[in-house]
Specification:
- It is built from six helices and 22 strands.
- It is mainly beta.
- The chain has three domains: 105 residues, Trypsin-like serine proteases (Thrombin, subunit H, Beta Barrel), CATH 2.40.10; 86 residues, 3-Layer(bab) Sandwich (Phage tail protein beta-alpha-beta fold); 89 residues, no CATH class.
- Strands 1, 2, 3, 4, 5, 6, 7, 13, 14, 15, 19, 20, 21 and 22 form a 14-stranded mixed β-sheet that branches.
Length: 390
């Protein structure tokens, strides 16, 4: 167990350990990682042991249970989550075994089992949530939208559930919006409609990040004080046509022999801006021809164009910061947050990187004396963008 009174406590138990008469696990460090997208949460850590029987338990495929909490009686309950080990390295050091390990959230069927089935008369969102329930359970489906503006028979042609969700996700039609997916450390399958998040939470984001001006400053509710250093990655794809430069594709109806040119335009929703970082001299290009049949709903490829464009745009601006003031167990990927730059004034959106973001990656790294939370925030453009852009 790793524990700092009043800050956190975290424990690891490996399957098979209860059969031994001792519990000789000396946990040195542990990191829990969750990322936006259809990938599973990850685990990596290290322990020291001197019992060869325990060493034998650490192998690929065995399961571990991670339990963590704030360590205060008046706070929320302990979070328990299961992982399957995927990589184990053992070193002999000073007459002991140092074991480094990595793992994934324990739903292997989600990744490897191929299925062939159909979801009739459903929207894309309904089909995705139906599949997710098989692995994460109905109580851990966390969606702010029940259905998308599409309805057809969605075919899963001998592919994994992860692959089916990834494919169907890109064809979910949410007009003037974008569906987002993530799986959290505690096993929640999150699906978010971007437009709904901004409408319902934009005025009061789940978390606020402000620079720590005073070492004595303490977190207050949803207000978190981060260390003064942070990294901004501005990957606007200046010459990348895929990032929403107005790409078009030819769509042909196989039954009716009709032709349509598909063009989907986007507009900023998180940043207080009217343009993306796209140079005005760079114009779109045509994607490869696509085809529709009687089973596909009319906007099948329109939604694909919209969603792939948005997926690129909302990876454009990212801010990475960290703090170690306390453990926020309820913080999750896809939470809407407000980030304030170090030199921001009282104005809410006065600097180009100040404003609303989504959490796209979240890491909690536990050691023997502290827990460091590293947060990656993402959005589509700057608040104040200059130059010949459109």
């Amino acid at each position: 167990m790793l524990k700092v009174d009043g800050l956190f406590q975290i424990n690891l138990v490996i399957d098979g350990l209860e059969e031994l008469k001792t519990n000789p696990l000396n946990l040195k460090g542990l990191e829990l990682i969750e990322v936006a997208g259809v990938g599973l949460p990850m685990l990596q850590g290290a322990i020291e042991i001197d019992d060869p029987n325990v060493r034998a338990l650490f192998h690929e495929g065995n399961k571990v249970t991670i339990s963590y909490s704030i360590g205060k009686d008046d706070e929320d309950d302990t979070i328990d989550t299961r992982y399957m080990l995927t990589r184990v390295t053992t070193s002999r050091v000073n007459h002991q075994y140092l074991i480094s390990f990595a793992g994934l959230y324990d739903v292997p069927a989600y990744l490897i089992t191929h299925k062939q089935r159909a979801f009739s008369n459903m929207s894309a969102v309904e089909a995705i949530l139906e599949v997710a329930k098989d692995h994460f359970g109905p109580d851990y489906i966390d969606s702010n939208v029940k259905k998308s503006e599409d309805r057809m028979t969605w075919l899963q042609g001998a592919i994994t559930d992860k692959k089916f969700i990834a494919n169907t996700w890109m064809h979910a039609d949410l007009p003037d919006s974008f569906p987002m997916i993530a799986i959290t450390t505690d096993g929640r399958f999150r699906l978010r409609d971007l437009k709904t998040i901004v409408k319902e939470e934009g005025a009061k984001p789940t978390w606020e990040f402000h620079q720590r001006a005073d070492e004595e400053a303490e977190d207050d509710g949803n207000k978190i004080w981060y260390h003064g250093d942070y990294t901004v990655d501005n990957n606007s794809g200046f010459m990348n046509h895929w990032l929403g430069y107005g790409n078009t594709l030819d769509m042909r109806d196989q039954e009716l022999s009709e032709y349509e040119e598909v063009l989907e335009q986007s507009s900023p929703q998180l940043a207080k801006a009217s343009a993306f970082p796209r140079h005005s001299d760079v114009h779109g290009r045509k994607g490869k021809p696509r085809y529709v049949n009687d089973n596909m709903y009319p906007r099948y490829w329109h939604a694909y164009q919209q969603n792939t464009t948005q997926l690129g745009l909302y990876s454009t601006i990212s801010v990475t910061l960290n703090y170690d003031s306390r453990l926020h167990k309820q913080m999750r990927v896809l939470d809407l947050v407000y980030f304030s730059e170090v030199d921001s004034s009282a104005e809410k959106f006065d600097n180009p990187f100040t404003g609303l973001y989504l959490i796209s990656k979240l890491s909690r790294k536990f050691s023997q004396n502290k827990v460091v939370t590293t947060v990656q925030l993402s959005r589509e453009t700057l608040s104040d963008i200059q130059g010949e852009v459109r």
